[in-house]
Amino acid sequence: MSPVLLIDLEGKQVGTITLDEAKEMARAKSCDLVEVAPEARPIVCKLMDWGREKYEREKKAKAARKKEHAIAIKEVKFRPNIDEHDFETKARQVRTFLEKGHHAKVSVMFRMRELRRPENGFQVLKRVQDFVADIAKLEEAPSRASQRVACMVLAPK
């Protein structure tokens, strides 16, 4: 039979023994024989409670997933010829998103004749950027994503 290097329940090396002897020791101590390093010579095996080990690994993975935080991108749409009050309302909404820790995508949508003067849309984006400059940084610069939409992404500082 092939020899294995056995590690007991406390983590101490028992030594190199045959596989049958290792299985017998596992049965005697009512635990599992787990192959730790199959590519090593001799193969390293460990006596452990596999069910408990599996439970603890799942618990650690669950705790790690709990700490993960997905970034939410909230979008606010503007028009190039937006009225002052509407602009302030929407800009305040962008500000609240950023204060809550979300990223904010600011879009300016153009219609027919508005396409002739895209600089009006970029002025709106610049005004929004200035409005939230104290709490936000520019993550994605203003650009024409398509023919009818100009957008930028702001992230909290």
Can you walk through the features of this model?
- By secondary structure, this protein is an alpha/beta fold.
- The protein has 2 domains: 3-67, Ubiquitin-like (UB roll) (Roll); 73-156, Translation initiation factor 3 (IF-3), C-terminal domain (Translation Initiation Factor IF3).
- 37% of the residues lie in helices and 34% in strands.
- It has helices spanning 19-28, 50-67, 84-99, 118-131; strands at residues 3-7, 13-18, 32-37, 43-48, 73-78, 103-109, 136-144, 149-156.
- The protein has a 4-stranded mixed beta sheet, with helices on one face. A 4-stranded mixed beta sheet has the order 5-6-8-7, with helices on one face.
- A hairpin with a 4-residue loop joins β7 and β8.
- The radius of gyration is 31 Å and the shape is rod-shaped.
- The mean pLDDT is 90.
Q: What are the defining features of this structure?
A:
4 helices; Ubiquitin-like (UB roll); Translation Initiation Factor IF3; four-stranded mixed sheet; single chain; 157 residues; 34% strand
Mean of residue pLDDT values = 90
| Main sheet properties | 4 strands, mixed
CATH class division of the largest domain:
Alpha Beta
According to DSSP, the number of beta strands is 8
Kindly provide the radius of gyration, computed on alpha-carbon positions and rounded to a whole number of angstroms.
31 Å
Strands side by side in the biggest sheet: 2-1-4-3
Run of helices and strands: EEHEEHEHEHEE
**Count of the separate structural domains:** 2
The assigned structural class equals alpha/beta
Low-pLDDT stretches are none
| CATH architecture level-2 label of the largest domain | 2-Layer Sandwich
Give the name of the CATH superfamily of the largest domain: Translation initiation factor 3 (IF-3), C-terminal domain
First and last CA, distance: 64 Å
Question: Per CATH, what is the topology of the largest domain?
Answer: Translation Initiation Factor IF3
Q: How much strand?
A: 25-35%
The helix fraction, in percent, is 25-40%
- The shape, in one word, is rod-shaped
Determine the number of helices (DSSP H or I, runs of at least 4 residues): 4
